[in-house]
Amino acid sequence: MTEKQFKSPLLEGNGARSLTEATYARLRSDILACVLAPGARLNVKELSQSLGSNPAAVREALSRLTAEDLVIIEPQKGFLIAPMSIADLTDLTSVRIELDVNVLRRSIAAGNLEWEARVVARWHQLSRTPMSTSDAAKKDEWERAHSAFHQALMSACSSTWLVRLRRMLYDQYARYRTLSVSFALADRDLENEHQALKDAALARDVTRAAELLTAHLQKTADVVLDTIRRDEAVLAWFADL
């Protein structure tokens, strides 16, 4: 059955996007949001049915996600969601802090008035976007605004490779950040953290901005660790516990 013949709800509202692309986007979103649990085995036929897709599109999507290290292939077992672990979180946090601070320093040094306008606009959007732990649509909207704000801060960095690597690490961190956001309303003042970052960047205070970003990213990791201790269901996701 060809993609043109296959009538799938995944294609609704997607215009010219192919079924494969729509399947990939849906699977990727579900993995990053931990809708598909870390370490879970993936059955191509079952995914095809649940997504309203077809096996060929699912296999292609899973192959792309394997290249992004979000899905792994094990002999005799097939596709699995990449596991989460404390060791991975610790390593990822350390590398991300080092890289993000480097990119932020370069961005502040090179930023012009257009960059300042982007930072202010994205911060304003984020500050006006409510965060909800119970409403999936609002949670997704906040996540997009959050990503856009951090991207704006980094957007004046001229190194294509640094920006590309930063994006990859940001996406890898998304699953852990999902756990952080679930408890963020009670455990931290994210609005104040983001405003302080914005103010330091616009003041061209590189040292202060680097300190704030380091604390911001480390706090996320700390909240994830606290979440693991609170929630037995989440605890089961971590391969080294």
TrEMBL record:
<protein>
    <submittedName>
        <fullName>GntR family transcriptional regulator</fullName>
    </submittedName>
</protein>
<dbReference type="GO" id="GO:0003700">
    <property type="term" value="F:DNA-binding transcription factor activity"/>
</dbReference>
<feature type="domain" description="HTH gntR-type">
    <location>
        <begin position="17"/>
        <end position="84"/>
    </location>
</feature>
<keyword id="KW-0804">Transcription</keyword>
<dbReference type="InterPro" id="IPR036390">
    <property type="entry name" value="WH_DNA-bd_sf"/>
</dbReference>
<dbReference type="InterPro" id="IPR036388">
    <property type="entry name" value="WH-like_DNA-bd_sf"/>
</dbReference>
<keyword id="KW-0238">DNA-binding</keyword>
<dbReference type="InterPro" id="IPR000524">
    <property type="entry name" value="Tscrpt_reg_HTH_GntR"/>
</dbReference>
<dbReference type="InterPro" id="IPR008920">
    <property type="entry name" value="TF_FadR/GntR_C"/>
</dbReference>
<dbReference type="Pfam" id="PF00392">
    <property type="entry name" value="GntR"/>
</dbReference>
<dbReference type="GO" id="GO:0003677">
    <property type="term" value="F:DNA binding"/>
</dbReference>
<keyword id="KW-0805">Transcription regulation</keyword>
<dbReference type="Pfam" id="PF07729">
    <property type="entry name" value="FCD"/>
</dbReference>
<dbReference type="InterPro" id="IPR011711">
    <property type="entry name" value="GntR_C"/>
</dbReference>
